[in-house]
Structures are given as structure tokens and as C-alpha cells.
Amino acid sequence: DGGITQSPKYLFRKEGQNVTLSCEQNLNHDAMYWYRQDPGQGLRLIYYSQIVNDFQKGDIAEGYSVSREKKESFPLTVTSAQKNPTAFYLCASSKTSGNVNEQFFGPGTRLTVL
Amino acid sequence: KNEVEQSPQNLTAQEGEFITINCSYSVGISALHWLQQHPGGGIVSLFMLSSGKKKHGRLIATINIQEKHSSLHITASHPRDSAVYICAATGNQFYFGTGTSLTVIP
């Protein structure tokens, strides 16, 4: 079945540690996105990638890094520089970066910093 | 001010009731999306529309481009409809509303 997978579903991290969230898609989509969701707020864009080996900062990129070495994979690293990393992280993909294309979402990773 | 505003924020309904969730946007858009997020967190796309009306089962979505307004209707609501419903507008990027939390009581 085609879709987007994120792992792990729950992640706990000690303050000061970097952690990498996985996102894989087998939909052959060009564009991939990382969002952060906090209670009472809409999804906020962290990073997006329109094509392999290229990515752009979103609205809240500080304290995060990404890579796009393969079309299928877009991992997100939450670094120790991110001041409030505890949140729900959603990965999404779309066929192209065109603005009328539907985004497909992964199941999300809930990160808790202890 | 958010580019996309939803109302109400929270909604509780009795099973069988007709439900309406509203979405207003302030940016130029190419399409308007309605998303459903279940308690586990995963998001499913319900509708993508740029004009008129779409229907899928008990769900109906409408959009008025001139008024920059969209509504999501649920007919004969059921407890399994309990979820957060998110409106998203696509212009040169995706703009998300904060969501409407719906609880349908048996």
C-alpha cells in the first residue's frame, strides 16, 4: 500500500540531546514537508523540500535541520538549539510543489523532552 | 491574525444532529482543504475544492470564493465522527486553521 510512514510514534529525549525523526513515502511524490503542531495552534511549517537534494526553511526552522538525499526520505533532526521541542510532528508529501496539489500526511511523531 | 480562521473551536453534538463547521480565509487561494485528525494524531484529507460543493457520504463541503468562506457539513452525525477538523487554504503555501474539535455523544 502506498503511504507515508513516520517513526517512532512516541519519542522521549533528554534536554540537550539531538534527535532525528524519520519520514518515508512510497507515493513517488516530489515534495515533502515537516510540520509542528502545538495545542490550540494550527500546523506550522518547519521545512519543505520540492526535489531531492534541495530544501527550504519554513516559518519556524530555527533549531531544526533536514536532509533530502533520497526522494522517498525526508528526516528531521531536532537539535538542542530548539527551545521548546516538545510537540507533535507531522510529515506530509505532495505530487509536486504546485499549490493545488493535495497533501498526504503521515501518522505523526509525538516528541517529549524530559 | 491568522490567515485561516475556523469556528467554532469546540463542538459537542448529539448523535444524529446536523453539524456545520465554518472556515474563513484572508489570502488568495487556489484550493481549500478540509482535513480530519483523529485522537491518534494522523491526518486524513477529506476534501479539496476550489469552487462550489463536494459530497462524500454524509460529508458535504462548500466554498464561496467571493466571500472567502467555506463550510463543512456532517449529516446524521455519529460518534465515530468525533475528531478534529482542520481547514487549510493553499495559495503559495499551505495555511492551516487551528481546528474544530468535534465530539458526538451517543
Question: Would you kindly provide a brief summary of this structure?
Answer:
The complex is a heterodimer of chains A (114) and B (106). Chain A is built from no helices and 11 strands. Chain A is mainly beta and 114 residues long.
Shape of chain A: globular
Oligomer: heterodimer
Head-to-tail CA distance between termini of chain B:
36 Å
| Strand and helix order of chain B | EEEEEEEEEEE
Low-confidence stretches of chain B: none
Number of helices of chain B: 0
Helix content of chain B: under 10%
Largest sheet of chain B: 6 strands, mixed
Using the CA coordinates, give the radius of gyration of chain A.
13 Å
Give the helix/strand class of chain B: mainly beta
- Overall number of strands of chain B: 11
Rg over CA atoms of chain B: 13 Å
Topology (elements, then pairings):
The complex is a heterodimer of chains A (114) and B (106).
Chain A: E1 4-7, E2 10-13, E3 19-25, E4 31-37, E5 44-51, E6 54-57, E7 64-66, E8 76-78, E9 87-94, E10 104-105, E11 109-113
Parallel strand pairs in A: 2-11
Antiparallel strand pairs in A: 1-3, 3-8, 4-5, 4-9, 5-6, 7-8, 9-10, 9-11
Chain B: E1 4-7, E2 10-14, E3 19-25, E4 31-37, E5 43-49, E6 52-56, E7 59-64, E8 69-74, E9 83-90, E10 94-96, E11 100-105
Parallel strand pairs in B: 2-11
Antiparallel strand pairs in B: 1-3, 3-8, 4-5, 4-9, 6-7, 7-8, 9-10, 9-11
